[in-house]
Specification:
seven-stranded mixed β-sheet, 13 helices, alpha/beta, four-stranded antiparallel β-sheet
Length: 391
């Protein structure tokens, strides 16, 4: 490999959300990789820092071109420059869209288990969370379209938050599935906001489908959140985009983003995104291979040492969803025990909706040596958990 993903990075003492934990703990919870970003991005940031002046910034032409070129080449989507609006992050964009495109007391539909911050964006803005749980057959997830349509048909439902690919279950929604979602939402006058921040983190050989690329209907009834931040591990630089082909919806959203003061870039946001999309491709290809190897390691280890736990098949994201139903109905209790017992810090599945109660989310996006440490801690704690429960 050209890039060294085995390098044991040290993130303590730098104000890292993930690593702001006691010394004995090993955090594998939040979706944040323990890899340095692409050297090409670091070099671009160093050049910008060397300039020494950090006044107000604007969105430059090369930012638009970088997004357009990346989605054209990597995801077969032709987007017009006018469709793109800068935003400081996907979560600010979602919250702003909820405020601007829905009314207090209306329903915002989510497919659970799903990214837990969706709930905050809905609840904190006085809207109602309406869950359409995904169907879990003991191996993988699918959509209950009967339930979905029933809830979309509720006149109080005005917005659907789509996670594409889906976090935490790692599902890539195929074109037919997305088309059906689009048809149902159009039929029942529900706008789709598609969070596609994990789109580039697919397994080698797998490819995601942009919701807006499926049909004119999907394109014209949607808002899509995009960013290089998850892919290149630069979330702290606060750089993202909202793609809105429909000019009426776009005007409303632009006003919302400006009102919320999340539409202006900091001094590093534009250059980092441009460097990522223009020069980060080779780094990303090697990253995807490395992450796939880490996922294989987790599956193999769990199968051999923790056969009571099932790793739900994943095609995208670097996260893994562990089914602990054979050993507990309350994985929250289990994750708290694991953290006390071995210091391994994981996320309890119930944070992603009540249907996640028997699951744990594990983030294996780290050097393999660190991942092996985490898996050994997991094995030790599960054994101690079972002993405690049988005493």
């Amino acid at each position: 490999m050209t890039y060294d993903f085995d390098k044991m990075t040290d993130r303590r003492g730098v104000g890292s959300l993930k690593w702001d934990v006691p010394e004995r703990e090993l955090p594998m919870w939040v979706a944040d990789m323990d890899f340095e970003t692409a050297p090409e991005i670091i070099q671009a940031l160093q050049r910008r820092a060397a300039h020494g002046i950090f006044g107000y910034s604007v969105v430059t032409q090369d930012w638009y071109e970088a997004y357009q070129s990346w989605w054209r080449q990597c995801h077969h989507l032709e987007m017009e420059q006018s469709w793109l609006v800068f935003c400081t992050g996907v979560v600010p964009a979602i919250s702003s869209a909820v405020r601007k495109l829905t009314t207090v007391g209306e329903n915002v539909l989510v497919q659970t288990p799903v990214y837990n911050i969706f709930f905050n964006s809905i609840r904190n803005n006085g809207r109602n969370i309406l869950e359409s749980p995904l169907v879990y057959d003991g191996g993988e997830y699918s959509i209950d379209f009967g339930d979905l349509e029933e809830k979309l048909a509720n006149p109080q439902t005005t917005l659907m938050l789509l996670c594409n690919p889906h976090n935490p279950v790692g599902k890539i929604w195929d074109r037919g599935t997305l088309a059906r979602i689009g048809e149902l939402c159009e039929k029942h006058h529900v706008l789709v906001l598609s969070d596609e921040i994990h789109c580039d983190l697919t397994d080698p050989g797998s490819e995601y489908v942009p919701f807006a690329s499926v049909s004119n209907l999907c394109r014209d009834n949607s808002v899509t959140c995009l960013a290089p931040t998850k892919t290149f591990n630069i979330a702290g630089l606060q750089t993202a985009a909202v793609m809105v082909p429909n000019p009426v919806i776009r005007h409303k959203l632009e006003r919302g983003l400006n009102t919320d003061e999340v539409a202006e870039p900091n001094a590093f946001a534009i250059g980092a995104a441009v460097a990522a999309f223009e020069k980060g491709g080779p780094w990303l290809e090697e990253l995807r291979e490395y992450l796939a190897g880490n996922k294989r390691l987790v599956r193999s280890f769990v199968k051999q040492h923790l056969p009571e736990i099932k790793v739900v098949p994943s095609e995208a994201t670097y996260l893994l969803w562990l089914d602990c139903g054979e050993i507990t109905e309350d994985a929250g209790e289990l994750t708290r025990f694991i953290r006390r017992d071995s210091g391994l810090y994981l996320t309890e599945g119930e944070e992603y909706g009540a249907c996640g109660k028997q699951f744990i989310r594990l983030n294996p996006a780290c050097p393999r040596e660190r991942l092996e440490d985490g898996l050994k801690r997991l094995e030790k704690s599960i054994q101690n958990w079972k002993k405690e429960k049988t005493q």
